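Example for reference:
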Amino acid sequence: MSDNLPFELQAEIMKRLPVRSLIQFRSVSKSWKSLISSSRFIVDYSGQQQHLFVMHEDDSDDFNQQCVSIVDDHTFPHQRVSVTIPPLVKNLKDPSIVGGSHGLLCLYDFDLDAKELEMAVLWNPSIRKAVAVVLPNMPDNKIYRTVLGFGVCCQTNDPKIVKINHIKQWKDVGSINCIPSQVEVFTLSTGAWRSSYSSNLPRKSIIWFRDQVVIDGIHYWLATDRTSEVSLYDLIISFDITNEEFKEVILPDGLSRNFDQHVMSNLKNSLVMLEFNRRRTLYNVWMMEDGVSKSFTKLFTICPPDVEQIYVLEFRKSGEPVIQVRHLGVPPDGLLSLAVYEPDSKDINDLGIDGFHEVKAYTETLLLLDKPNFFIYENTTPAFEA
């Protein structure tokens, strides 16, 4: 880049470059390294390139997990690279993707033994950096279940983890001397947990599902209000990452049926509910309009031919669903195929990645660049605020 350009203009040009170039430019000059590594530049940088992160297990390698990143543009799916799994993620033994936000992925092992140290890992695959956060106050897993949420504050670009301990069964509420749900929030900039949110919940008897998505700085979880042992009220609970307030989204009556078979996703930065019809092996895709409760519009149906099992994992930037399928004739214990479904033609295009998959879309970011790699945030006991 020409020395004749003002440094301020150079900085503006760099904000539009891919992450890979910026990492290389840090070796060009001290001034560029100082600029790119500065907290202000890291927060202001917003990558334009979207990728699909694919984590999959292949039984030929004893179900060892492998990761692939696929560029999601007009070249899809031809630009793909293998991604090295960082040690912190390998330490989780059986990691699952909790969520993704602003180019970061949050991973956690929900099947850890109660005696093991429980951690969540924040990973930036674009710059190959990861940090871990020890989860405090983990309860008796015979009574409680833990769900997590992850997102980055839209105003400050500060990553946050939300941890919710809730009672598994309604019958246990009266047998213990504590509130049904305990909520704590970790903020990366402070490296500490805070706990003052349980009284902020819209309902006291919520049973939380692990399925969650974050859109425009709002977390959404599928949930059930178990008002009695036989009465269920299905809904979505939201959490604003900026003001840290909970609200509820009321579902239309039609979407409350077979609720345990539904999933949520992010389609072109809007919340969608995927209504599964097990008998017909299809998904109806419903989009929430303008964040308004009970206002959902059906967009299309995902109904690929010649398959006997289907699961929607993610959506491409173009809006096409990324699906995991078992084709007709494949034995029940056989590997599943990863494919993209075209709603208009109803065709499926196999991506050539067999196994058991998790997929998350992400955009390039510099977040975590100013953090020590593989750092573990521990001894961060929550501060109980009034």
Q: What stands out?
A: The CA atoms of residues 237 and 248 lie 4 Å apart. The chain has a mean pLDDT of 86. The helical segments are 7-14, 19-25, 30-37, 39-44, 87-90.
